[in-house]
Amino acid sequence: MLGRLPGVRIPGDDEIRRLHEKHAPTREAFELVHTHCRIVCSIAEQLLARDGLGLDAELVRAGCLLHDIGVYRLYDAEGNLDHARYVRHGVLGHELLREEGFPEEICRFCSCHTGMGLTREDVRRQGLPLPPGDYLAVSGEERLVMYADKFHSKTTPPTFVSASSYARQVRRFGEEKVAAFGRLREHFGTPDLAPLVTAHGHALV
């Protein structure tokens, strides 16, 4: 899967915002998830502005703005997020976008951005509540969205995450995940988070 296939319609910002508003169970959930997606988009676009990547900027933007939409399906009727099943937000987002009529190329940004990618063996070994399979970013656009996502977290309160902090965090899943992050960092570069920290007021950890 390499870039955008001819004839695939890419949703614009207004359409994507309406999708978030449609599926968000509360205003608080919308603000948390949509703001995170916009921040990830800003990080990806900063990296895209550097020479030599040759990626589809419109596809990357849509992928960033939609990648976490499945989180809304983890809220209960009282507005509480099911943290125990959070790893499912990717496949839930994939299902949501498919139900909305989007092609696989768009849906995959949801299911293929978690961590440094999840393999069938990861799912088995960790006992994850996911259908057996590989959930891996393949195209350059998918890899950039996955990478940019690592630099911001929807914690309470939300935080920006430095490259060194993320490398430490992901080590618990194995040295191969650290190495995969390192390869993405070498390929895409390290974003300058300072302007975003100032703009959003989220701490950098």
Helix fraction by DSSP (H/I, runs of at least 4)? 40-55%
- Uncertain parts: none
Provide the structure class. Answer: mainly alpha
Shape: globular
Strand elements, count = 3
Strand order in the sheet with the most strands = 1-2-3
- Helix-strand pattern, N to C? HHHHHHHEEHHHE
Radius of gyration (CA) equals: 16 Å
- Beta-strand content estimate: under 5%
Distance between the termini: 34 Å
Major sheet summary line: 3 strands, mixed
Tell me the number of helical segments per DSSP (H or I, 4 or more residues long). 10
Which whole number gives the mean pLDDT?
Answer: 95
Keywords:
three-stranded mixed β-sheet; mainly alpha; 53% helix; 3 strands; 205 residues
Explain how this protein is built.
By secondary structure, the protein is mostly helical. The protein has a domain of 137 residues. 53% of the residues lie in helices and 3% in strands. The chain has ten helices and three strands; from the N terminus they run αααααααββαααβ. Strands 1-2-3 form a three-stranded mixed β-sheet, with helices on one face. A hairpin with a 5-residue loop joins strand 1 and strand 2. Helix 2 runs antiparallel to helix 3 and helix 3 packs across helix 5. The longest helix is centred in the first third of the chain and has 22 residues. It starts with 12 loop residues before the first helix and ends with a strand. 36% of the residues are buried. The model has no long low-confidence stretch (mean pLDDT 95).
